[in-house]
Design a protein that fits this description.
alpha/beta; Rossmann fold; 37% helix; 8 helices
Amino acid sequence: MTKKAVLLLSGGLDSATTLALAREQGFEVYALSFRYGQRHAVELKAAAKVASTLGAKEHKVADIDLRLFGGSALTADIAVPKDRTNDEMSTGIPITYVPARNTIFLSFALAWAEVLKAYDIFIGVNALDYSGYPDCRPEFIEAFERTANLATAYGVEAKQHINIHTPIIHLTKAHIIREGLRLGVDYGMTISCYDPTPEGKPCGQCDSCQLRAKGFSENGIVEA
């Protein structure tokens, strides 16, 4: 019997690699993306291409508007930090953190998983390069997994554990890229930028662009 899994897909390199890893493990993947008012909504085009290319069974885009609350450089009229040093990027919670985003996204994933009778959810969080984000920590994932098993009818009735998979949570960006290249991921179809140009090109200066470039550089690759 084919194992079903719901996977959160942003269109960036982390979630693309996570999708490739889930497929390698034999999962039939149902990819879920969000149009949440993010300034980098161009990522949704990338997510659609990643889902199709890497063999997702289905790809849904949920519409929610986190601009209603703001509080983040990704959902409000707040400048995205540029050209920060490694020390700056590793200190404190950055303004690009979107309040409760992963909690919200995982709740949507859980709802779809319940309908699909899927007991596995994948999310490409990383606790090394994004250690400032509280909802990327292993402690948060463990807590949400406990909640998932208490909050759903199928979790209670089926007596089957719901698992939240985070296969890249302890990997460096360079290691994540190596894993993706091993699995044949074409990173040219992904975008990681927080503040792309109107034409959808990466800025090259935000934290995400810098971390991506560093990861490729450590693999001896310079992206065009």
